[in-house]
Amino acid sequence: MGTTHHSGYVSQHHFRRILGNFGVSIQAAIFASPGGWTETREVTKVVDVRTGEKRAGPVKETLAWIQHRPCQTGPVEYEPFVRSVMQGDAESAKAKACTDTARDAAQLYSLWKLVTENKRSLLYELNQRDTGAVGHVSVGDFHAALQLGTGCSSSDAKLVVANIPLAAGSGWIDYRRWLVEFCKDPRIDWQAYLSVDLLATGTHQIESQQSEAELRAGMMHRLHEEHHQQHPGHYY
Questions:
Q1: Is-above-0.70 flag for pTM?
Q2: Calpha distance 61→39 (Å, rounded)
Q3: pLDDT reported for residue 109
């Protein structure tokens, strides 16, 4: 694959050239690489026109695909990249999701009833911790408000956070949006919770799957052509 000295790496130039031979863009390779979505939420500061002092303003949300091994810059470790693309982890991820769903279903349903029955007191506790009235609270404050507002346990609160898209990895929770969507369905949909402006095609999951399929199809087509050239008398 263009490597030298059997290092297991190829230069970025060779990597992109080989992808081009398969008809695969570097963007498709990025999305097909093992990784995960990372969310950040940052409370911005604005100047209060009445007092002239800075106060908490809108929350800036960003969403980015972070690769475990970046393939768009620098040398690329090609063997793990090819292995992950050809094998993939979609089936194992699906099986794990089904197992987790079955295991937590009863507890999550009980929490859904608890939240809907104590919505007013829970919202009061959350508002008390949202001192800047920005609609967001830290994960720690969310845990405390959830336990005080509903009487649930610490493990219950952890399960609720685990079912928020990206498990509130940014450290902040949009509690108003969460409360509306959780009362509809405790397994909150990505598009319902994350900012729609951040979802370029409506769903990142479909975009990622399409990119992975494009990459696999290109590789299989190239392998088929090479085999046909080496064995011209063989047909499928």
A1: no
A2: 7
A3: 87
